[in-house]
Design brief:
The chain is α+β, with helices and mostly antiparallel strands and 303 residues long. Helices cover 44% and strands 13% of the residues. It is globular and about 55 Å long. The chain binds a DNA duplex (13 and 12 nucleotides) through helix 6, helix 9, helix 12 and helix 13.
Length: 303
Amino acid sequence: MPSIHILVKPPYNFAASVCDHGWPSLAPNHWLADEQTLQRAERLHSGDVVLLRIHAGASEGHDPVQVCIDVESAHELTPGEEQEIAEKVRWMLKLDEDLAHFYVRAQGNAGIWAQVQSGRGRLLRSPTLWEDVVKTIATTNVTWSNTCSMIERLVTHLGDPFPLVPDLRAFPTPDQVAAADPALFATEIRMGYRNAYVQQLAHEIVSGVRDLEELRRAELPATELKRELKSIKGVGDYAAHTLLMLLGHYGELAIDSELRAFVTGRYFPEESPTPKEMAAIYEDWADWKYLAYWFDSNTPSTS
DNA sequence: TTCCAGGGGTAGA
DNA sequence: TCTACCCATGGA
């Protein structure tokens, strides 16, 4: 089985970073806890589906951390395919993001620093912005377990199978979602009123009206990215800020029921804060508000 | 049965 | 910019 290796400058904790938010639980991702491995069926540009098993390699002290990608495939990989896989995994793991300023800033907060000093902060994302937008829309106004079920059904019904283990499927492409019968969404995939949003986005991409991969690669300022993201039906402030985080912009908080409950409980026990009051808690973190909140919410209260 | 979850669109002010 | 109302789904 071919294995692709990537060297990562420390500090970097593969397992903690991958598992720091819910994305490894959303199909086609699957976290194999016993093996500390992220498994995922992935459709390559050629249309072939391969199985990726991503895990940390052995490293000591200050040596670069090694990330290993074991690839199972029905055919022999070409050099181009190996390069494609490596690029996708680098993107998914945010290996090219510079978090140095966040680490410096985090050292001023003992609780948050304790959370991140081992090399965390690179939250998992999907190989394509398309997949991340669909998944983010699927997190709105539903419980997390329902989000997982919706995405599982979407992948099961529309994703291409991995030939060697057909039960494992890749995330469906915009073409596959656009071509799907709306009745299949209504009766089987069951994303509720989000069905129309997801299929509309797929149609926009297929028709060329919208290019999310161009948007993903374009190094636009956060304000412009946010405007583009909010023009997608089903993406409001919460979803846009979540997607900005996934794209490497941490200056806006994604205010959802979890954030409201955490911030109210820790900082406003006697009142019900407005969104502006909640945002003010992390104002000093400037471009790093999202990560600051994220690790603050994982930090035990000192009071 | 009712409520609500990792909200958002729309209409009307 | 703000508010009211509606939106499918599934678990508690």
